[in-house]
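Quick log. Single chain, no ligands specified.
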Amino acid sequence: MKPDTPLHNAPTDAAARKAVTPVICYPTDGLARPDLAPFHAARAGWRKVSETLVPPREARCFDAPAGHFFRITSVQGPQVGDLNLWAAQDLSERFFSGKTRALHGTHLSAGDRMWSCLPYLRPMALITDDCLDWYGFDAFGGSVHDVIGTRCDPYTHNLLAGGQYHHCCHSNLTRAVADRFNLPLHAAEFAVHDVLNVFMCTGFTRETGQYFMKASPVRPGDYLEFFAEIDLVGGLSACPGGDCSTLHSSDQAACHPLVVEVFAPLSPPSGWVAPQANGYDRSHGL
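-> predicted structure:
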């Protein structure tokens, strides 16, 4: 945080320096905005191939083959979920929340893609429908489905509050990955990464720039829908913060399950081509 009382006096041209017009770091004019109509049309006649119930304060993995859709749905009560994605055949290719944020902004919605880490940097999943797109940004600067929070974890919990709490999303995902890939916990933990905070309502305070959360507007039946662009394994944690209105990483918050459904369309969306790994030659100037 910036200090309440700066130690250094402002220069005479401080106002002019602050008035400089910002420049978008990563202009996305070269990224074609996807036409969602073929993806919506592909849902006609689709077949549900799996359904995964994620219990409160736990995580589960699910498989979403390339060309399939998957939906994360709120059931029983308002609940936030922390989502990880991996390439099904290579755990080293995983969701890159930082680059996704740089390309699409702090909060995602329909038409945005979830990108994989370097050196792959390709679309992993396209968001095709968002029941909470009506929310936009509120008066506090808050919005839903953020890629700014990291995930609640037992290390930060121990740092700030002390104690050993094992149902943070980081630990939940670690257990789920260990089970799905038959890995020891210490190896599974290194596969867990920064998340898409599904249904979470967050922002930054204007005064201090601190990350905040508030009660999620999600209600039972609301969903966030994706199209898998490569073969995926997903990991979803039903956060121990519940709707994240008051408490985080706690057994006191009211928590509810989430459901992940995977659907196989009759045929791929018209014009869709599975993405290849990024074309950079990796010579790095040598």
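The chain has a mean pLDDT of 96.
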